[in-house]
Amino acid sequence: MTKSERQELLDNGLLLPLMEEFYTIQGEGFHKGTAAYFIRIGGCDVGCHWCDVKESWLAELHPPTDVGKIVDNAEKHSKTIVVTGGEPLMWDMNPLTSQLKAKGLQTHIETSGAYELTGEWDWICLSPKKLKLPTQRAYEKAHELKVIVFNKDDFRFAEEQAAKVNKECILYLQPEWSNRDKMVPEIVDYVMRNPQWKVSLQTHKYLNIP
């Protein structure tokens, strides 16, 4: 395959830069505690300084992988498939989700929403970032809003984002892991004063699983 042919397949979502794939327990948000197969796609230019998967940022570090192969692997493990990154919406998600849905699998995505929403999703976890805000369609379609709280200004940002999502969207505040000791008490206090919000924790880290 030539470089240009490979790039065309990447552009069309038939190949994806696969960083890793693994079967584990969803640790965050509405579906925490649920067994799920995670597909982590490389490539992200949002650039959060506290990102705990910075090795995902450069797509070229991760092998372009046939979508059919990814789907075959996923089907062996779980009915619930979580696509994450990186920022998976940098790529066309239509081929991946159409094949996953054809197998009868549930499709979930974790995204900043900064790129056009492609793919067919049973659950959209929108985690907006200040450096590159979500698209309008991402706000409209999100099932849960998960705002990462690193400092007190993130509460202001969270309210700005909550005003943009649909009325059925579930609102979560999640402490950034490295600063959790400082921010968990702040989040608990905030949610008690603003009960439209819920607390999300990275329970997989407490369980010491991927």
TrEMBL record:
Residues 31-210 form the Radical SAM core domain. Coiled coil: none annotated. InterPro entries: 7-CO-7-deazaguanine_synth-like (IPR024924), Aldolase_TIM (IPR013785), rSAM (IPR007197), rSAM_sf (IPR058240). S-adenosyl-L-methionine binds at W50, C51, D52, G86, S127, P128, K129. Homodimer. Pfam families: Radical_SAM (PF04055). GO terms for molecular function: 4 iron, 4 sulfur cluster binding; carbon-nitrogen lyase activity; magnesium ion binding; S-adenosyl-L-methionine binding. Binds 1 [4Fe-4S] cluster. The cluster is coordinated with 3 cysteines and an exchangeable S-adenosyl-L-methionine. Binds 1 S-adenosyl-L-methionine per subunit. [4Fe-4S] cluster binds at C44, C48, C51. Pathway: Purine metabolism; 7-cyano-7-deazaguanine biosynthesis. It is an enzyme of class 4 (lyase). Keywords: 4Fe-4S, Iron, Iron-sulfur, Lyase, Magnesium, Metal-binding, Queuosine biosynthesis, S-adenosyl-L-methionine. The gene is queE. This is 7-carboxy-7-deazaguanine synthase. GO terms for biological process: tRNA queuosine(34) biosynthetic process. Its cofactor is [4Fe-4S] cluster; S-adenosyl-L-methionine; Mg(2+).
